[in-house]
Structure formats: structure tokens, C-alpha cells
Amino acid sequence: MAEQILLKRAYYDPSHPGSFCGVQKLIKSVQDETGTKINAQTAQNFLAGQDAYTLHRAARLRFPRNRVFVPRPLYQFQADLCDMKSLSEHNDGYQYLLTVIDVFSKKAYARVLKNKTGVQVTKAFEAVLKDSQIPQKLQTDSGKEFFNSSFQSLMKKHGINHFATGSDLKASVCERFNRTLKSKMYRYFTAQNTRRYIDVLQDLLQSYNTSYHRSIKMAPNQVKSDNVALVFQNLYGTSSRCRKKPMKFKKGDLVRLSKVRGVFDKRYEQTFTSEVFTIDQCIPRDPPVYKIKDYDGEEIIGSFYEHELQKIALCKDKLYHIDKILSKRKQRGQLYFLVKWRNWPEKFNSWIKASELKNLT
């Protein structure tokens, strides 16, 4: 307890050398000042319970991900939506591009859309299926353009196992193809002094599908049933050894989730969610991934790497900040307020007794 007091005093004193620092600097500053030796785990446990630390802890953007292993063509497709609104006035009002790729053969497909409603995305994907064949699995992000009744009905109709990734990199194979396609597109724009792509989109796809792909060491259109073993060898080599890595978290741990940031987001602003989640499932891959649930026990779509999660501790006397008071009522002589909690989803809005409110100003 004495160590906790020393750590808290140092951490929250703006003039102290250890104020608002990480584990090692905090330990050193307390030891230099008081001579008290504090181990790293004690300091880490203290910081895990401090919002000022857990909400702003540096979040890694680049770290090893699970490699996508697929055994054959038509085993798994990835799909993504490209925002093409900046070019819509040159392309008959088409604002989006649905791109789809076979993760094994790298064969790619694309369709233009005027909006990204579930109905339009479903029609576009159904058109892709007419050109390809039915895949066993489909991976997308967790956006509503894919997770809606119309699209899910199509998945059920064809028996496709549709799943999402929660990671910020999402469907990485498809996103890499998007960069290649856009590169071809913009070079065409420069060569022809135009911004119109819808007339040549299928030509650009034909170019991609008939050109040499470094990972499979042939063109996507050259992948056939009689050379699957060769393509697999080219993709993954002979080694299937998986390194075992210990799990950092266990079921029931409380965690914050790394906020997905753009390239130019300021690192000193909030980097982890205010909302707290619970580890629900630990999946021993290389590297490990985790399934999480929200505070109400609702499963969050996708799986998450350990670098996207941060274990925290919730103190019994923790105060939650209110964003605004939405309404009030009286019940049996007691005054209640309907409050919106700061940085928590609206589903957690709740009625609390007026006597439980504290003014911290």
C-alpha cells in the first residue's frame, strides 16, 4: 500500500520527474527521491488502473500478423470497398468500387457502385460470382455494407462462410490488390489525360490477371487444378512449422482496444478506447489472437492481436465521466438522470441517482 501511495503521488504531481511517464521512468524517479525499491510488476499494476496512462499508452501500428494460409483456389475470397467519390463526376456518378480477390490464385474481380447500401453491394458481389465460381469462405471488414440482411441472405444462398477481421489491416491481400489496381488506373489517367476509369476497368483487370505475380510465380489466370501443388509451394514453401508463443492475456481479463488511427493522427492524443472489453476466447495462432466481448457481454466481431489490446485494472471506487445529461425523472421521491457516458457507445446510456453524481470541477 505504501508503494501505491508513493507511485500515485509521483505520477500525478506535474512537477515530479516521474509524472505521467511509463513504468521505468516512474520507478526510477520514486527510487531516486525516496530510496524505496519498487519492482516493475508493482508499477505496471498501478499504471494499469490509471486512465491517464491506459488511455494514452503508445499503441504499436506495425507488428507481425497471422499469415493467411489457403490450400487451393476458391477456398477463400477477400472483398473490400474502395472509395472513388473524388472521381465520380468523371465516371457517371459511380462512387465506389467493389474489389474481390481469390487469396490463393490472386485472381481479382471488380464492380462499380453508385452507393454502398447493402442491396447494391449484394448485387455487385452476385455479379462477381457469375464470373468466378462459389468460394468456400469470404473475408471482409465488419462494415454494414457487408453485414446486412441482403448480403447475408446471398451468403446463405450459396453456402459461403462469411467472416470479418477486427484488425486495422482487415483484408490485407485484397487491399494490396487495390493499390496495384489504382496504380495502373492513375498511370492510365496520366497517359490519356483523363479521370474516367469505368470504360477500361475490365481491361485493367484483364491486364492484372494475365501478368506475372511474384508470390505465385505465374499469372493468376495460369493457376489451374493441375498446378495447385506448385502454386502452394511457391506461396508457402515446404515449412509448415508454427512457433508456439505464450498467451499474453487469459479469459476474463479486462482490456482496452487500440483505436484505429490514420497516418497523421497525433500520437499523444487518446490511443486506446475508454470503453472496456473482456477477453472471451484465446486462440493460439502464430501470433496469438483474441475474441472479446463488450461490457454487456455482446461479442465484438473479428479477432484481435495482443498489440491491439491493453490489460487494465478497474478500481472499485473508479469514477466514470459523464458527457451529458439527456433527461431526468422522479421515481418514489428519488431524482434520476439519464446520462451519456464520455467516450462510451450510446447503448450504455443509463439512469443513475442524482445522489451518485459528483462534481469534479
UniProtKB/TrEMBL annotation:
It is found in: Nucleus. It holds the Pfam family Chromo. Signal peptide: none annotated. Residues 320-361 form the Chromo domain. One of its GO terms (biological process) is DNA integration. It comes from the Eukaryota. CDD domains: CD_CSD. Coiled coil: none annotated. GO terms for cellular component: nucleus. GO terms for molecular function: nucleic acid binding. Residues 69-228 form the Integrase catalytic domain. This is Integrase catalytic domain-containing protein. The lineage of its organism: Eukaryota, Metazoa, Chordata, Craniata, Vertebrata.
